[in-house]
Amino acid sequence: MSNKWLQVRGDPSVRAFLFAQQRVESLFDTRLPEIHDIVSKLVAERGVFHAKIHYSSSQVTLWFSDDAYRYRVYVKEEVLAPDFLQQFRRQSTEHLKPVLDTRDVDAILGEFRRLRLSDETIYLRAGSINLINGMIGMNFSCDGTHYIDHKTFYDKLENFGTPEAVAGFPVVAACGS
Q: How many helices and strands in the chain, by DSSP H and E?
């Protein structure tokens, strides 16, 4: 990817009915702080270098540094089980020389929360973080997807996803309009 920000427009039929839809609260929405804490610990302590949180369907997809060619999907109550983290051995991602660290991950997860909950029509459906290349992926309710490097993401935080945004990056920009 040559750009620092790649926007991919999804299904036009989804965008056509954008304002006729509304976010429905998912299991993950009801426990966002806990979900984000679990993901943060997986990244910091359990060797996850790429995590994708599917907020709408309440699932996480994880890639581990000791088994990078396979992803693992965990759903709903399984992720929230008291012993979920204990099934993964402690391991580091330092040997992969990550671009992002735990503080970055926590800040990004905080923004994912804002983008998920701040608007009932245009909202984050799924968000991903890759520690190694520093890329963030975001899929929105309009089926618009953004892949953005962490520095550009941080530069646009105060504007991205807000109706008051300037420079052509309002929340509707998530949808490719």
A: 6, 7
Q: State the residue range of the domain holding 45.
A: 5-175
Task: Give the total number of structural domains in the chain.
Answer: 1
Q: What is the pLDDT of residues 9-49, one digit of tens each?
A: 666 665 556 666 788 999 999 999 999 999 999 999 999 99
What strands, in cross-sheet order, belong to the sheet with 48-54? Answer: 5-8, 145-149, 135-140, 124-130, 48-54, 59-64, 67-75
Quick one: how far is CA 156 from the chain centroid?
Answer: 16
- Phi first, then psi, for residue 115 (nearest 5°) are -70, -25
Write the CB contacts of 98 (distance below 8 Å, at least 6 apart in sequence).
49, 131, 132
75-103: per-residue pLDDT in tens? 999 999 999 999 999 999 999 999 998 88
pTM of the full structure? 0.86
Give me 120's structure tokens. 């009932």
Q: Position of tokens 């040997």?
A: 95
The H or E element containing residue 105 is helix 102-117
Greatest CA separation found in the chain?
47
